[in-house]
């Protein structure tokens, strides 16, 4: 198993899952992990930089053998041009790694991209490059699913906002409570949710699934805007009723 962008968050959880199953795991990350798992092999590179070459990929393959699973979790976090950075990190790097290692996959292998809800919707605090990069991953999954079949299956996952250890201080308890009211599953997405889907798509039980983009948002995208607004107003009315003690109004 090779995880690109796997030193923290979802990647860390995934590595532990695969290691528990007895897999050999290689992890490429831009930063050192907070704590290395002694069973995994770490390669600290910026996967979009010139240092990450075919020779580096060859070292990874030589260390643990040909690939059964390749997972892309990376995203651009640099300070440079956001358009160029996002396209380079999300699309060009992904393409280069896949095409330089096609001959290094075993039969019945799996490639999985982690995209975002920004691949199909608009997240106003993210730049255009982020949206185009994430949308491109969805189409890239479809393209490679056809071009690499039947040897390699390729799928994509598009989660909404992810609650992880690194951002719990930003998404405080009050925010999480309010946010969850507009999600049918009544909570935010977690790295464990993503890891569960990736783990399934990597295995034999998903052997006939390829070229798909799985929306992982707890049903949030199923609700039209009008219903979200009505639910928001309903919540406000119920809160007001509790304050004034009017049971009839609360029932209404």
Description:
The protein has helices spanning 9-20, 54-64, 82-101, 128-147, 173-180, 191-202, 225-244, 247-251, and strands spanning 2-4, 26-29, 41-44, 67-72, 105-114, 152-159, 213-216. It has a 7-stranded parallel beta sheet with strand order 3-2-1-4-5-6-7, with helices on both faces. Helix 3 (82-101) runs parallel beside helix 4 (128-147). Strand 1 (2-4), helix 1 (9-20) and strand 2 form a beta-alpha-beta unit. The chain has 8 helices and 7 strands. Helices cover 43% and strands 15% of the residues. It is globular, with a radius of gyration of 21 Å. The chain has 252 residues and is an alpha/beta fold.
What features would you highlight for this structure?
252 residues, alpha/beta, 7-stranded parallel β-sheet, 43% helix, globular, disordered C terminus
How many extended strands? 7
Biggest sheet, in brief? Answer: 7 strands, parallel
Query: DSSP helix count?
Result: 8
Order of helices and strands: EHEEHEHEHEHHEHH
Class from secondary-structure proportions: alpha/beta
Describe the strand arrangement of the main beta sheet, using strand numbers. 3-2-1-4-5-6-7
- Uncertain regions: pLDDT < 50 for 5+ in a row? 235-244, 246-252
- Shape descriptor reads globular
Secondary structure: helix percent: 40-55%
Task: Tell me what portion of residues adopts beta-strand conformation.
Answer: 15-25%
What's the Cα radius of gyration? Answer: 21 Å
Mean pLDDT: 87
Q: Measure the end-to-end span.
A: 55 Å
List the helices and strands and how they pair.
Blueprint: E1 2-4, H1 9-20, E2 26-29, E3 41-44, H2 54-64, E4 67-72, H3 82-101, E5 105-114, H4 128-147, E6 152-159, H5 173-180, H6 191-202, E7 213-216, H7 225-244, H8 247-251
Helix pairs in contact: 1-6, 3-4
């Amino acid at each position: 198993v090779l995880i690109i962008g796997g030193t923290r968050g979802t990647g860390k959880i995934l590595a532990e899952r695969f290691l528990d199953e007895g897999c050999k795991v290689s992890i490429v990350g831009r930063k050192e992990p907070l704590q290395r798992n002694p069973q995994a092999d770490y390669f600290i590179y910026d996967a979009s930089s010139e240092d990450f070459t075919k020779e580096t990929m060859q070292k990874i393959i030589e260390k643990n053998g040909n690939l059964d699973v390749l997972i892309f979790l990376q995203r651009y976090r640099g300070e440079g041009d956001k358009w160029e950075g996002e396209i380079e990190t999300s699309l060009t790097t992904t393409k280069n790694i896949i095409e330089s290692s096609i001959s290094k996959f075993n039969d019945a292998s799996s490639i999985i991209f982690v995209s975002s809800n920004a691949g199909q919707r608009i997240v106003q605090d993210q730049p255009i490059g982020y949206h185009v990069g994430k949308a491109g991953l969805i189409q890239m999954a479809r393209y490679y699913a056809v071009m690499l079949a039947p040897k390699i299956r390729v799928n994509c996952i598009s989660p909404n906002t992810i609650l992880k250890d690194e951002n719990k201080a930003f998404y405080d308890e009050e925010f999480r409570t309010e946010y969850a009211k507009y999600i049918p599953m009544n909570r935010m997405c977690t790295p464990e949710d993503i890891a569960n889907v990736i783990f399934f798509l990597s295995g034999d039980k998903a052997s006939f699934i390829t070229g798909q983009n799985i929306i992982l948002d707890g049903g949030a995208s199923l609700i039209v805007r009008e219903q979200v607004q009505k639910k928001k107003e309903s919540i406000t009315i119920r809160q007001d009723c509790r304050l004034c003690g009017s049971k009839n109004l609360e029932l209404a």
